[in-house]
Known about the structure:
Strand content: under 5%
Number of helices: 6
Structural class: mainly alpha
Radius of gyration: 14 Å
Amino acid sequence: MCLLAVANCRQDISGTQSSAGINETEVRLIANDLAIERGMNLLCEASGDDNLSTFMEELRHSGISKEVRESIAADSVTMMNKISTEEPEYICTPEMFEGSSIRVAEAQKKWDEMRGITQ
């Protein structure tokens, strides 16, 4: 189950700061979690918010360079393509969706914190 290994993999988040003061490595981790959610929704033909597209649009307004945004988008497509090769019976389970939902909520919270938005 390749997806489980990828979904649980966390990199060192001591990455570089963008000119907007946003940690690019953390942004990539957020995008990865959102890409997993989007890929699962596509594979499983599940309805759900397209949090990845919303995030990418927010990145466009955040001051992150076009090159970094394009790289993040390419990484997201790669992740969604990996998910599309998985067997739906292993991915389209309540447990996988629950885990993804938790990671997405954490990612969105982290993104809000990075932008100075608190709830």
